[in-house]
Amino acid sequence: MKKSVATIDQFVEWVEDVGDFFTTKDVYEAPWFRGHGSQHYVLTPSLYRTEAGRARLSDDLLRSEFMRKALPMVAERAPRDDWEWYFLMQHYRAPTRLLDWTDSALVALYFALTSYSPSAGANIHPVVWALNPWALNRFQDEDDGTPLGPEWPLMKSYLPPAFEGKRLPRFPVAIDPSYVAQRMLVQHSHFTVHGRDTRSFEKMRKDLRLQDGLFHVGINFDLQELDRWRWHLTLLGITETTIFPDLEGLARELRFEYQIDRTRPKSD
User: Fold this and answer.
1) Does a structural domain hold residue 229?
2) Which of 2, 132, 147, 267 could bridge to 174 as Cys pair (CB 3.0-4.6 Å)?
3) What is the C-alpha to C-alpha distance for residues 179 and 186, in angstroms, rounded to an integer?
4) DSSP code of residue 214
5) Interatomic CA distance for residues 107 and 100, integer angstroms
């Protein structure tokens, strides 16, 4: 499996290798992908990135306050249950135990490139992670490992009623969400939800038996090539408005298209 790639062609080859590797007994287990702007960014949900977030009641307090105050701000239909509220929290970047994934490798590559900071230094580069969610769920003894829906019995233990003091399961699980916002649909969203173990996926990898179910690849380029990579993604149909189908996304797309924020790559 490649450790780094320098072109989109090489990235696509890596994606194909991951897909083939995750195929077991002639059954294709589709990978989930996640893009980071830096190889040093760990696979830890936002709630668990601070000491305050790791406090026992922090999740309950955040959930209850979000639900209490957010209802007048919901432009589309109101969430129908606690899981839909939790997905909405993650969508709008409130701290949760969720990690975003996508079944589109190019969407993950988009997030890796657009979250990369050229000022971070020459030793920092974007990465794309690939997870086998079936392998993760098989570790939880969930039959064939199919990613779970919010209505599955096991999921009740991952989001118990607030303030009842019920103990969360220890390890993360893969979940297919209800799409409570249009962005989740167009971004091909999936999630993992952490339990009470606050470590990153990398540090839990051996415990979760994910040695063959979690990989990443570095995206290596000169700073001058960043816009070329983004331009090639545009040619492949991954634009600001395909990821963010709203006026803000359209404005960013036009700025990029009309070279307000970049220089169009020169032909070879």
Assistant:
1) no
2) 147
3) 10
4) E
5) 12
Q: Does the reported pTM lie above 0.85?
A: yes
Proportion of the chain above pLDDT 70, given as a percent: 95
Overall domain count for the chain? 2
Contact 1, 17 (CB under 8 A): yes
Residues in the chain, total:
268
Determine the 3-state secondary structure of 235 from DSSP: helix
Weakest mean pLDDT among 44-53, 193-202, 237-246: 237-246
Position 228 in a domain:
no
C-alpha–C-alpha distance, residues 181 and 167, integer Å: 30
Q: Chain-centre distance of CA 70, in angstroms?
A: 23
Token duo for residue 58? 């922090």
Residue 13 pLDDT: 96
Q: Predicted confidence band at 19 (pLDDT cuts at 50, 70, 90)?
A: very high
Mean pLDDT of the chain: 89
- Cα–Cα distance, 33 to 30 (Å, whole number): 10
